[in-house]
Amino acid sequence: MIKRLPTDPFLLKLFATVVLASLLPAQGWGVPLFHHATQIGIALLFFLHGARLSREAILGGLAHWRLHLAILSVTFLLFPLLGTGMAAVLRPWLTENLYLGVLFLACLPSTVQSAVALTAIARGNVPASICSASASTLLGVFITPLLISIVLAGATSAQAGVSLEAVGKIMLQLFFPFVFGHLLRPWIGGWVGKHNQLLKVVDQGSILLVVYTAFSGAVVGGLWSSTPISALLVIVLGNAVLLTLAQGLAWLLGGWLGFSRPDRISLLMCGSNKSLSSGIPIANVLFASSAVGAIILPIMLFHQWQLLVCAWLAGRLGRNGQD
Fold first, then answer.
1. 161 near 152, Cβ under 8 Å?
2. Over the Cα atoms of the chain, what is R_g?
3. Which of 22, 33, 39, 38 is nearest to 220 (CA)?
4. Cα–Cα distance for residue pair 74/79, rounded to 1 Å
């Protein structure tokens, strides 16, 4: 009997939002309305991320500093190197914004929820994964723009950089709400835990709002008329190769460093996963509104492929760990 492949329901909502923006994009008075709503949504999203961050879990995993350093190295050093090489190979078949999207994907932080869940399924070091993935999300707010600036240093059409204006936007829309939410955790943490489903709706609604706004601007600017289907197929193939290389090298690195099997699993799952929920808001802050729609396409496609591969891999590692 063939098992049903895992599909993220949220990803289906994302693509439905892309279709809606393609057919009914925001125009006229709707543009500033959605722009301001998007800024509020992003701030709320990071506020809730901060409120959910468990200080106890982080402190409990800090002893594994070598593992955390390895995970961050895979996420912010190895992956950008692989992504830069992959983008260079694929560039002849990509539009400029899709090329930039591949570079942006490679520079993103690790996802938290799915990386921790996959680590648990694979019987890895869950406390360490919580610590590393949370740290990756927080550090990514600053490291991702810096990495993008570095990898685009030699590009003639660079559209991103760590300008004072970009830093100000990041602090205002992402970092301050995150820290404020975490500082309020002692008072609102219990409520957050009891209303997880409601907050999940707020989280996803914020992301969908950003996606709709981004793709509306891109569609009005001629996104689909300037993006050939062949370029999207090349992105799918490149994503598969990129994830395979990152996972293989992360597993080998864990063995070379002498990590235990649970620690190698944590390195594999946290190091090779990229965050869609952090990537879309960061892209919205860093890039011109007309370019964001195309730039986030690679991470949206990568997210589904990462889910399929990592779910299969986690199940296999978990079964082998029982032998």
1. yes
2. 19
3. 22
4. 6
- In this structure, the number of other CB atoms found within 10 A of the CB of residue 78 comes to 19
For residue range 156-210, list pLDDT tens digits in order. Answer: 454 445 555 666 777 777 888 888 988 898 888 888 878 877 777 887 888 888 8
- CA diameter of the chain: 62
Residues 235-263: pLDDT tens digits? 999 999 999 999 999 999 999 999 999 99
Residue 256: per-residue pLDDT:
96
Ramachandran angles phi, psi of 157, nearest 5° = -115, 35
Question: What distance in Å separates the CA atoms of residue 6 and residue 114, rounded to the nearest whole number?
Answer: 12
Residue count of the chain, please give it: 323
Q: What is the DSSP letter of 323?
A: -
Closest C-alpha to 20, from 206, 198, 203, 214: 214
Contacts of 169 (CB under 8 A, 6+ apart): 285
Cα–Cα distance between 270 and 64 in angstroms, integer? 14
Separation CA 118–CA 318 (nearest Å): 10
Q: Are 95 and 294 in contact (CB under 8 A)?
A: yes
* Tokens linked to 294: 């195309």
**Taking the CB of residue 8, how many other CB atoms lie within 10 A of it?**
16
Mean residue pLDDT across the chain: 85
The helix-helix angle for 276-286 and 126-151 (nearest 10°) equals 30
